Amino acid sequence: MTTQTVSARSGRAARPLTRTGRWARGAVGVAALFAASELLGRAGIVDRSYLPPASSVVTRAVELAGDTLFLQYLADTLTAWAAGLGLAIAVAVPLGLLLGSVPAVNAATRAIVEFLRPIPSVALIPLAGLLLGSGLEMKVALIVYAATWPILFNTMYGLAEVDPAGKDTLRVFGFGRLEILLRVSLPSAAPFIATGVRLAAAVALILAVGTEIISGFGDGLGIFIAQAYSVPDGARDVLAGTVWAGALGLVIDAALGGTQRRMFRWHHVRQGGTT
């Protein structure tokens, strides 16, 4: 029996969770995970050298906030993340507007796009390291490659969802294709583009940290984690660094989500969502 059926029989519409409700459920999940990890570590079910108690990991994560070298690693990762995401937006939005507005260009490039999109960015690390070296440029290039796709396809999807009545109205009044794009299509597609940016921000952070871990050279949070992994009894530092990575992702997503809701409240109300 589905939720819709139950709601229909009870005569009441199912109400979505409020923001407070979602945060409360999330907090319960985090608390349950913390308790399970603490229990496994304290009971000796799992060797502490592989899974330290959660309290020990959290304590170490807090200690790292006062470590100057760690904060520099963090800044290096965030610099690569911001630069890569910014460039991805600068590339993907105009390209998405072009492909979504000109069917002939979309058809001509579809095979190339579908060929490049499935290639994982981590597979390009050796090539990027050979061409760009082991510094910021390599990380930014890989981030741009991975973060471009969510923005590109959300931009194209947003253009496809534009109400044709608005475009037809401007067309009747003699407006050209570019003016219609800027006055109607782009504003209507903006919420979809914002969603793409939000998805790309998470992808960019994953690539920033993951590239550092896999490549094993340069600076950043991933380098801290990789170096801790190679040290005996370094699991606490590895997990503490992972906690920091997860916290960064949570803060970034919350900030972008809040900004998106404030900027596109009209779209949010029209969709009847709570995200």
UniProtKB/TrEMBL annotation:
<dbReference type="GO" id="GO:0005886">
    <property type="term" value="C:plasma membrane"/>
</dbReference>
<feature type="transmembrane region" description="Helical">
    <location>
        <begin position="78"/>
        <end position="103"/>
    </location>
</feature>
<keyword id="KW-1133">Transmembrane helix</keyword>
<comment type="similarity">
    <text>Belongs to the binding-protein-dependent transport system permease family.</text>
</comment>
<keyword id="KW-0472">Membrane</keyword>
<protein>
    <submittedName>
        <fullName>NitT/TauT family transport system permease protein</fullName>
    </submittedName>
</protein>
<dbReference type="InterPro" id="IPR000515">
    <property type="entry name" value="MetI-like"/>
</dbReference>
<feature type="transmembrane region" description="Helical">
    <location>
        <begin position="204"/>
        <end position="226"/>
    </location>
</feature>
<keyword id="KW-1003">Cell membrane</keyword>
<keyword id="KW-0813">Transport</keyword>
<feature type="domain" description="ABC transmembrane type-1">
    <location>
        <begin position="74"/>
        <end position="256"/>
    </location>
</feature>
<dbReference type="GO" id="GO:0055085">
    <property type="term" value="P:transmembrane transport"/>
</dbReference>
<keyword id="KW-0812">Transmembrane</keyword>
<dbReference type="Pfam" id="PF00528">
    <property type="entry name" value="BPD_transp_1"/>
</dbReference>
<feature type="transmembrane region" description="Helical">
    <location>
        <begin position="115"/>
        <end position="133"/>
    </location>
</feature>
<dbReference type="InterPro" id="IPR035906">
    <property type="entry name" value="MetI-like_sf"/>
</dbReference>
<feature type="transmembrane region" description="Helical">
    <location>
        <begin position="140"/>
        <end position="160"/>
    </location>
</feature>
<feature type="transmembrane region" description="Helical">
    <location>
        <begin position="238"/>
        <end position="256"/>
    </location>
</feature>
